[in-house]
Design a protein that fits this description.
Number of helices: 6
């Protein structure tokens, strides 16, 4: 059995990004998206035209500054290797509890199709408060797509944050 990390919780998040489950490398590093080939951090920083810093603490500080919470759909599962397709015995995280603590979260972004599928099956039906959810192309290196194409799809994250600021 493998277990996900605690969520990264800014003081007043507006956006929640959910992955599926940390990769083997991320679990070893004890960092969200710790595999150097994963494009999550480069994508996120590119939304604001910044290079992703090497230091994990600076990366997570950026999330907090922007009002982006980060977690995984699954709390635990059985899995050989890192591929989401190999997940067995999925147990969901308590996303509803996180949403009740942070009523300002207006959009949930799901990092990849598998995160979206687990979210829609295991979490969304139990939510008391409906929150818009959007599936983004996976930042995983297993999802073959040019970086610029992924970035174009991920731009909605910044757009949603900035649209909320204008209201």
């Amino acid at each position: 059995m493998i277990y996900s990390f605690a969520p990264i919780e800014p003081p007043h998040p507006e956006i929640l990004i959910l992955g599926t489950m940390p990769s083997v490398r991320s679990l070893l590093e004890q960092q969200y998206y710790g595999h150097p080939q994963n494009r999550f951090w480069p994508l996120l920083f590119a939304l604001w035209d910044h290079p992703a810093p090497a230091e994990y603490e600076k990366r997570t500080a950026f999330l907090r500054e922007k009002g982006i919470a980060l977690w995984d759909v699954l709390a635990s599962c059985e899995r050989e290797g890192s591929l989401d397709a190999a997940i067995r015995e999925p147990v969901p995280n308590q996303v509803e509890e996180l949403l009740s603590r942070y009523p300002g979260i207006h959009t949930i972004f799901l990092n990849g199709q598998k995160a979206g599928a687990f979210y829609r099956r295991l979490i969304e039906p139990k939510l008391a408060r409906r929150v818009e959810s959007i599936v983004l192309p996976s930042s995983s290196p297993a999802r073959a797509m040019p970086f610029e194409k992924k970035l174009a799809a991920w731009r909605i994250v910044r757009e949603r944050l900035e649209a909320e600021e204008k209201q």
